[in-house]
Design brief:
Layout: H1 2-20, H2 36-47, H3 63-83
C-alpha cells in the first residue's frame, strides 16, 4: 500500500507539473502546459519506467518539468522497482 501511495503521489505531482508548466518558473521559452492526454501519457510512462516520449524534448517541456518531474521519476521509478 505504501508503494502504491508513493507512486500515486509521484504521478499526481508529475501530471500537475506538466499541465501547469506554463505558469511555473524555469520556463524561459514560455512553453505552454501539455494537453491533459499528453501529460497523462507522459506521467504514466515515467512512473512505470517505460519512458515513452510523445513530444519533442526541450521544444515542449520546460527546464523545471525536466528537472523536477522527468529526471526525478527516472530515478524513483527504477528505485521502487528495485525495492519491490
Amino acid at each position: 500500500l505504501a508503494l502504491l501511495a508513493f507512486n500515486l503521489a509521484g504521478f499526481l505531482l508529475l501530471f500537475a507539473v506538466l499541465l501547469l508548466q506554463g505558469y511555473l518558473p524555469l520556463n524561459p521559452q514560455h512553453l505552454p502546459g501539455q494537453e491533459w492526454s499528453l501529460a497523462f501519457n507522459t506521467a504514466v510512462s515515467f512512473i512505470t519506467n517505460t519512458n515513452w516520449q510523445a513530444y519533442s524534448g526541450e521544444a515542449s517541456v520546460s527546464y523545471l518539468s525536466q528537472m523536477l518531474g522527468l529526471t526525478v521519476q527516472n530515478f524513483v521509478s527504477a528505485a521502487t522497482g528495485l525495492a519491490v
